[in-house]
């Protein structure tokens, strides 16, 4: 599996292949030609007496100082060393690989002015499965993800620390030598070109989009299980009702739920009782397509933002097509930061409605004939009482994580960089939020499966397949057992797609 990195950008799928699944990268000949052609302009400008930012000047608030020829290599070296100032826990391998790939993608546009060997070194490091050690704190999401990118550049220079393919931490110089990679020696503009960009936040956005698209389907699956476990109605998911309010995501979600829950013997048996005694389901069931649909539409907006960024050259200064070196503000992470925060909001709300559905199973006033807390012997057993507590604790945390990072700004660099995006922080909290949503949906699925089994009547074929797959890891309802391992097993089955695959084997592909 190889991903071509050329002058016209990447797709979200490309990023995930390299970052998460270790695909190799290969610079196209067109990209190498463009990089080489642009570099000639930089070298010509380096000989001029007129100061050029990033080529013959200092950086940020120090941009007014003209740097003589004999100090320019030291200028680039000092830039990377000083900016590799991250702190805190190590960032995940897939994030660092995405970060490096996206920086390489910008280099491949030919708009940054680096030499071809600099870009090739980044490709070689990725292909050798060497991962620079990058820390969680250090980026304000403006002037690029400076500290994270600087740690990667430092490793390419043979300094700092990396992890090899086995996960062992070692000095970068040793890892490069073992892989037969020559450390780069930076020249004019190159240090700056390696650390200016939205690559960290964008990489995390691409990974998040991929995860959230799958979780949207799991949310529909959870709803389809809950509506059966609670003896509700699928009438509210019929397409003609959603044509009255034609949001695209809403229609997809309703269609998925209907596909997963229709032809359910359990619901058929309860139809007359529901019509005469219940009339309609609670909002958390009836309005599930509206909430999950809005979630889907938000993810679709995120895809649009990501695709624009993936096909952009983010650097400052940038080398234009006519050879000018121009300062600009395209490194500012605001467009990405906003959508990362938007996603955190809808993640929290999708988890919130899932928790409310779960809670209905546990209350005899609302669960339509099931035991209290789905306990085998209520009073002796507690059933899923505390599973819902776990959900509630996660949902509360997700609401805190929904507080937007992009609404904050903190000035830096002696007030030269006086407005920043905080996009890296928005991305970091979104990753935590996605983990929380996965756990909340898994607990709803686990609880709904228990309720359906306790009913003793057959659910729809897709849900029957899901419960069968679940029962290979989690036993059927009985007296209380150690519950945490069962929750974790369900989370793993959601995360790896096992339950969704089981459902789609009966229903066909979901939207």
Notes on the protein architecture:
The protein is mainly alpha-helical. The chain has 2 domains: 2-196, Fumarase/aspartase (N-terminal domain) (Fumarase C, Chain B, domain 1), CATH 1.10.275.10; 204-313 and 344-507, Fumarase C, Chain A, domain 2 (Up-down Bundle). Helix content is 58%, strand content 5%. It has helices at 12-21, 29-46, 72-83, 93-108, 116-127, 146-156, 172-179, 190-195, 199-229, 239-242, 248-261, 265-278, 283-286, 288-310, 334-362, 385-401, 423-455, 461-471, 484-495, 498-507, and strands spanning 2-5, 24-27, 87-90, 131-132, 135-137, 161-163, 169-171, 318-319, 325-326. Strands 4-6-7 form a 3-stranded antiparallel beta sheet. β6 and β7 (169-171) form a beta hairpin. α17 crosses α19 (484-495).
Provide key terms for this protein.
511 residues; mainly alpha; Fumarase C, Chain B, domain 1; Fumarase C, Chain A, domain 2; 2 domains; 58% helix; elongated; Aromatic_Lyase; EC 4.3.1.3; HutH; histidine metabolism; Fumarase/histidase_N
